[in-house]
Amino acid sequence: MHRIIRTKQSGQILGSLLCLIGFAALVAVFWKTWPNVSGSANVFSQLWSEILVGQINLASIVTLRLVYLTVVGTVLLILGVVVLAFSRQIFYVSSASTQLQCPYCRNQWKARRGMGWAECPYCRKFIHPQTVKKV
Ligand SMILES: [Zn+2]
Predict the structure, then answer these.
(1) Distance 97 CA to ligand 1 centre (A)
(2) What is the pLDDT of residues 87-134, one digit of tens each?
(3) Same domain? 113 vs 84
(4) How far, in Å, is the centroid of ligand 1 from the Cα of 127?
(5) 6, 22, 30, 70: least CB-packed within 10 angstroms?
(6) 72 CA distance to ligand 1 centroid (A)?
(7) How would you label 71-89 residue by residue, b for 16+ Cβ within 10 Å and e otherwise?
(8) How close is the Cα of 117 to the center of ligand 1, in Å?
(9) Environment class of residue 22 by beta-carbon count within 10 Å: exposed (0-12), middle (13-18) or buried (19+)?
């Protein structure tokens, strides 16, 4: 038995993108609040109050409250990790050969692979072999 990890590229891109945006949002929050927080005695409570009251300007057009940015950033980051995790499909493939059967002539033969189209070695038809059993 050996393990094959197949990744869905679209899922990988989407997941990475979500992680990146979420991470960027959280970095922006820290970057905005850190100058006020770093000198504080209680960093975490100061950080939290800064996040609750703080705002951030994006190109002087959009004003975002830091608390929303923090929530959205966290959600996107988690979503990105979930998408990345689900876009990895792990297959356990038997390295032993598989017994295949032709759906037309019912002859059987062994092959390394059980999936996909193949030419029947007996009737020379182009068929989708049926898996009989693992040998
Ligand atoms: Zn056949």
Answers:
(1) 19
(2) 877 665 556 677 889 999 999 988 876 567 888 989 998 888 888 865
(3) no
(4) 8
(5) 6
(6) 58
(7) eebeebbebbeebbeebee
(8) 12
(9) buried
User: CA 39 → CA 26, 35, 42, 74, distances in Å?
Assistant: 20, 8, 9, 25
CA of 118 to the centre of ligand 1 (A): 10
Q: Separation of 113 CA from ligand 1 center, angstroms?
A: 17
**87 and 108, same domain (yes or no):** no
Tell me: do 67 and 129 sit in the same domain: no
Shared domain for 108 and 121, answered yes or no, is yes
Distance of CA 116 from the midpoint of ligand 1 (Å): 15
User: Model pTM?
Assistant: 0.56
Q: Looking at the structure, do residues 73 and 41 belong to the same domain, yes or no?
A: yes
Same domain for 17 and 75, yes or no, is yes
Q: Are residues 19 and 72 in the same domain?
A: yes
* Domain of 110, in residue numbers: 96-134
Say how many residues make up the chain.
Answer: 135
How far apart are the CA of 45 and the centre of ligand 1, in A?
Answer: 74
> Which has more confidence, 81 or 130?
81
Ligand 1 centre distance from Cα of residue 104 (Å): 5
**pLDDT, tens digit, 9 for 90 and up, residues 21-74:** 999 999 988 888 888 777 778 888 888 888 888 887 766 777 878 898 899 999
